[in-house]
């Protein structure tokens, strides 16, 4: 059975932007690695395994299928560890997103690893309140996904906008809604017309392409994409960094994407006019349980409009250069995201090698 030092369990394709900078650092150091690609889930509407294989082939990454006979010293997960076919000795977690207003990062099973990488001090403080006995597994590394941002240039911005058939001389709005709860169906139906003098890039969460229940949301985005100033990203455009580089303003929902944008020093808007399912409207306390409301002060990095009309006003102000949240953003971003310095991946690899050495010892 072939053995690798480090494995990456690619449960979902959208975890790859967090893994990729780390993989590149591993390749640079000539460490053996493999990306494990699991079978498709029955509810997926797209062949996610096929897309993951294609991505690895295009990048020249070493990969194998979960059912193939491989073993790893360390397995890196992007979410709670699963029972997988590939055997491993130690495990680590690079969570697929930072704080985004929900309690998902506090799930106990995310701690079922030997080493858990954290973005910043905020998450460490919060987790130590909840799980003080797990102190030894936490390590603040920063947010690996942003490492490659520092390699992007103005020329990259221009080429990217041209590839989207957008005007390189216009300012660009990045609308990056999450899957639930989402503002998509509560946005103005003529959103592209309200911002006709700007480029609009639509970068939805991958679940909109994968799940039947989000078809209405996806259809609304597809309708907007017919406007000449709008580009809708495809499912396999997993890397958000070119989108961040090309954009002047992000509009999103309660999503970690907001902190990614704030992390590179740009203004964002968090829509608070969200559409909830009937069950959550009937039992709002159940929806609130999934929200980390006691830490909503962190949304001060952005504007938080409660109506579409307010969002339009906030967006126009930001695009005119009024960055009124800059001071608060700079104050909070390091607390949540850690050091945004392009050196997160080397720190992660150093720590993974320490873990590997503990196996040998």
From TrEMBL:
Which residue windows are coiled coil? none
Listed GO CC annotations = membrane
InterPro entries per UniProt: Glycerophosphate_synth, TagF_C
Looking up Pfam families in the UniProt record yields: Glyphos_transf (PF04464)
GO MF entry, a single one: CDP-glycerol glycerophosphotransferase activity
Name the domain of life: Bacteria
Protein name according to UniProt? CDP-glycerol--poly(Glycerophosphate) glycerophosphotransferase
